[in-house]
Amino acid sequence: MKGLSLVLAIAFFVIAVLYWTGTLQIATHEPGPHHKHAVLFAGLGILCLIWFRFQSASPSRVR
Amino acid sequence: MTFLQAMLLAVLQGFSELFPISSLGHTVLIPALLHWNIDLASPSFLSFVVVLHLGTALALLVFYWREWRGIALAFAGSIVRGRFSGSTDEKTAWLLVAGTIPVGLLGLFFESEVRGLFASPIPVALFLAANGLVMFAGEWLKRKDDGQRALVSLSYVDGVKVGFAQAFALLPGISRSGTAMVASLLMNLSEAEAARFSFLLGTPVILAAGLLEVPRLLDPAAHLALVQSVLGGVLSAITAYISLAFLTRYFRSNDLRPFGWYCLGAGMICFILFFSGIVKA
User: Fold this and answer.
1) What was the pLDDT predicted at A63?
2) Residue B233: CB partners within 8 Å, gap ≥ 6?
């Protein structure tokens, strides 16, 4: 799971960069950069890094 | 948009964003009923709405200032430690994260399509009436036999479910705070606790809705009237604060049914007026 969280984090950050630069146009309405999409995916990337952090520390008491 | 219209919209936003009666629905219906010649999609109007959202978010942050401080510290502490301590503030923080992800994702990908399809008075009136029925359903279906739970007894999956319920508010006429409260009631929270969760959960959503649109304020096409916008934001913040003070007190001993009656009545009346052509949609 540690590996998965790190892979997901990297994937989300890459997607965020692609939306920010306007390279990625999936689920968008007009061409060009999509900063809101980028911010959201960067947020998801950060959450995945936090998930990674939680798995690195021990003992975990996730409920 | 005249100065008076702007101030009335600011007051409307401040009240209706937190009352479970759909602010977006009212923003569509009231100008249509009063024959206000406002282009709801124009850059200047959208910029004005950004300021109103920021005002409402500010009121939420100020009203729950102590809670937000505790939540933020507990949230940061859990990340630094890399594990959960089990504190109330920390559980609340992660419930808010769990509840915000669904509405964030769904809002980003479907908001424009959904609002483009339904943001005209007739469907909005129907959704407002449906919102009233949702309020009644929540009160009818909530469990009345067991003791009521505290917010921190919810699981993170429950938090995600409430987040999905909030996302129904992408439909103009459906209330975000209303659907979040109903979902919380179905998980056996009390009205007061459900309202608190709904308001806390609404803060990042409303704040993000405002902050992510801040670039609109810098758009040269926006022609934002500075005095009008600042006063509108302040008025929206004041009315939102008054709404919070009222609603947190109200839900200690009352339920959602009066708002259900209001939404059902207002929605049906608006539908009849617009559908029959008495008021031009």
Assistant:
1) 47
2) B10, B51, B52, B54, B55, B58
Cα atoms found within 13 Å of the Cα of residue B43, Cβ hemisphere only: 12
Does the structure's ipTM exceed the value 0.90? no
The CA distance from A28 to A37, in Å, is: 9
Q: Mean pLDDT score of chain A, rounded to an integer?
A: 85
- DSSP letter for B182, please: H
Chain centroid offset of residue B16 CA? 8
Give B11-52 pLDDT, tens digit per residue.
999 999 999 999 989 988 999 999 888 877 777 787 788 889
Q: Is the peptide bond before B172 cis (omega within 30 degrees of 0)?
A: no
Place of tokens 């892979």: A7
- Look up the pTM and report it: 0.87
Q: Of B267, B244, B262, B103, nearest to B173 (Cα)?
A: B267
Rounded to an integer, what distance in angstroms lies between the CA atom of residue B172 and that of residue B281? 15
B212 contacts in A (CB within 8 Å)? Answer: 35-36, 39
Q: Distance between CA atoms of A54 and A5, rounded to whole angstroms?
A: 10
Identity of the residue in A37, A53, A58 whose CB atom sits nearest the CB atom of B79: A53
- Does residue B85 sit in helix, strand or coil? coil
CA distance B249 to chain A (A): 32
CB within 8 Å: A61 and B155: no
Using the predicted structure, report yes or no on whether residue A59 has a pLDDT greater than 90: no
On the 0-12 / 13-18 / 19+ scale of CB atoms within 10 A, B276 is exposed
Contact B108 A29 (CB under 8 A): no
B98: nearest CA in chain A?
A47
In the predicted model, what is the mean pLDDT of chain B? 89
